[in-house]
Amino acid sequence: MSEDEFDTDTGLRDRQTTGEDRVRMVARQLSEPQTANWIAAEADWSHGPTSRVLERLVEDGVLHCDDRGTHTTYYPDYRRQAMQESMRLRDGEHTVEELTDRLTDMKARIRGWQDEFDVETPNQLRGTIADEALDADEEDRRREIAGEWDHLQRRIEIVGFAVREWDFLAPTTEPAGANC
């Protein structure tokens, strides 16, 4: 395979996945509701087939849809995502102690931002961008930190759940055919 095939937007990923695969990948990674058109564009696939895949994902309970606005939007079942991610953490290479250390580190980063900017939430930090004394670089920095803060808050919830439910999330050792 030539090096050019790795560098193009329609390179290796598109050659090894179907349009349906790409729609599923995009849909499962949504962090906020999006329209079928947006998902189709991200998956580099046409609207009609994308809509059909999204409807199947809704029927399967993988996605939810909201048709109350001007456009129907799709979003993942965040509970399912959190549970799957918690199970991946439990089944992965990390110990409960390592995950607890990660929690401590994430919370320390947030406390550092709270102290540095004298704010309590990412949105309060975003609000400081209105300060006229900031240059463009500092505005960008604060916007980036607020996004990272949002991300860390979601990670703290998931990692915290994995730690709290460590024993419950343990892989089962029952034979595949065992029923009660």
Structure description:
The protein folds into two domains: 3-76, Arc Repressor Mutant, subunit A (Orthogonal Bundle), CATH 1.10.10.10; 80-164. The protein has a three-stranded antiparallel sheet with strand order 1-3-2. The chain is mainly α. The model is unreliable at 1-9 (pLDDT under 50). It has nine helices and three strands. Strand 2 (63-66) and strand 3 (73-76) form a beta hairpin. It comes from Halovivax ruber (strain DSM 18193 / JCM 13892 / XH-70). Residues 1-21 are annotated as: Disordered. Keywords: Coiled coil. This is Sugar-specific transcriptional regulator TrmB.
Key structural traits:
Arc Repressor Mutant, subunit A, 3-stranded antiparallel β-sheet, 2 domains, 9 helices, disordered N terminus, flat, single chain, 180 residues, mainly alpha
Instruction: Kindly report the average pLDDT value.
Output: 87
SSE ordering: HHHEHHEEHHHH
Major sheet summary line? 3 strands, antiparallel
Q: Whole-number radius of gyration?
A: 21 Å
- Determine the fraction of residues in helical runs and give it as a percent range: 55-70%
Q: Which stretches are low in confidence, meaning pLDDT under 50 for 5 or more residues running? A: 1-9
The order of strands across the largest sheet is: 1-3-2
Secondary-structure class: mainly alpha
Alpha plus pi helix count: 9
Number of domains: 2
Total E-strand runs: 3
Overall 3D shape: flat
End-to-end separation: 52 Å
Report the sheet-strand fraction. Answer: 5-15%
